Amino acid sequence: MKNKVAWKGILAILAATISTVTFAASPNMNTAGKTNPPIGHYEYCMINGNECGSNGSDSGPLQLTEKLWKTILKVNYDANSKIEPLTDQEIFGKEEVWAMPTSVGDCEDYVLLKRKMLMDRGVSPANLLITVVLQPNGDGHAVLTVRTDRGDFVLDNMRNKVLLWSDTEYTFLKRQSTRNAGQWVKIDDDHSPALGAM
Question: Which of UniProt's keywords are assigned here (predicted)?
């Protein structure tokens, strides 16, 4: 009987240790100084200056409640379902145009819509960060990062599932600053997609 109790205690300690190690693998991105915004976002800000200013004071990642998690999932699904994916070339006859979509759009347009939908539901813009990544094939892509106390989660038009950033197959390059939506910062991407997929 004593052995069973001892083993239960050891297993509990191991579980807590594994949980701590997993959490220590940085569920939130580290940033590494200012960088230039994508040209499409710069041009978008020239037209929509009210969306590209100060985010106010940054009080840190928001608390991820069950209600908020359901809202995030719903917004990601609703936007992905509502907008038909087309390239900027197909829509505008140009290579790169960022615009709020109504029926068609490409990756950054989905991001703009999801960001607006979550802001309309009371989420601070300091925690809704447009993020530029590289896909495994080397193509650029834009996603929305939602910064929470449980980690940085990625809303992606390529999937309805919302993943922790380190569980995606992407290489993270840069994102909006938490302090100012018109400024961008580099991402120190040291996560391993292979480990994140385990």
Answer: Signal
- Residues 6 or more apart whose CB falls under 8 angstroms from that of 29 comprise 145, 152, 165, 172, 175, 187, 188, 189
pLDDT tens-digit series, residues 120-137? 999 999 999 999 999 999
Residues 6+ apart with CB under 8 A from 47: none
Residue 190 is predicted with a pLDDT of 74
Torsion of CA 18, 24, 25, 29, to 10 degrees: 150
Strand spans (E) along 8-149:
30-35, 84-85, 104-105, 128-134, 140-148
> What single-letter DSSP state applies at residue 176?
E
Q: Which fold has domain 28-196?
A: C8orf32 fold (3.10.620)
Q: In terms of C-beta distances under 8 Å and separation of at least 24 residues, what long-range contacts does 136-139 make, across chains too?
A: 136/169, 136/170
Secondary structure (DSSP) of 123-166 = --GGGEEEEEEE-TTS-EEEEEEEEETTEEEEEETTEEEEEEGG
Gap between the Cα atoms of 33 and 186, Å rounded: 6
